[in-house]
Amino acid sequence: MTYILVDILPIKAGKTVEDALAYFDKVRPAMERHGLKRIDQPLEAHKILRGNQAADLVNLFETDDPETSMKGMGSDPEYQANIALRDTIFDLENASIVLTTRYQ
Predict the structure, then answer these.
(1) Stretch 50-74: mean pLDDT
(2) Does the domain made of 3-100 have the CATH classification 3.30.70.100?
(3) Which residues, in sequence order, are CB contacts of 44 under 8 Å at separation 6+?
(4) How many CB atoms lie within 10 A of CB 18?
(5) Which of 6, 12, 73, 95 has its CA at 20 to 30 Å from residue 52's CA atom?
(6) Taking the chain, what is the end-to-end CA distance rounded to the nearest angstrom?
(7) Is 90 exceeded by the pLDDT of residue 104?
(8) Which of 67, 78, 38 is nearest to 86 (CA)?
(9) How far apart are CA 64 and CA 73, in angstroms?
């Protein structure tokens, strides 16, 4: 089964979507090594029409094994080397990752 992770990210004040995209360019090799592939262009959120989820950027990633992919990526030295940068860009306390599959 293929899973799609919907990564909903608010960006901290003073940071931009361009900063976020530059971060993802740096960690893409680590993500891909562990089975996470971007399946679409990043989506810039313009307005929340319903609900209270903060969002500036939405990413869609595909993986066959979300648990192994996330753990592997999190322990990858290249990913870990960019955690400080990540934490300056994203408001992770208000971010969400939704695990989904395509409805059959």
Answers:
(1) 96
(2) yes
(3) 17, 56, 57, 58
(4) 8
(5) 73
(6) 11
(7) no
(8) 78
(9) 14
For the whole model, what pTM was predicted? 0.92
Residue with tokens 């599959």: 101
The tokens of 2 are what? 């293929």
Residue with tokens 């999190």: 74
Question: What are the tokens at 80?
Answer: 């870990």
Q: Which structure tokens are listed for 10?
A: 């608010």
- SS3 readout for the chain: CCEEEEEEECECCCCCHHHHHHHHHHHHHHHHHCCCEECCCCEECCCCCCCCCCCCEEEEEEECCHHHHHHHHHHCHHHHCCHHHHHHHECHHHCEEEEECCCC
Tokens coding 78: 């290249």
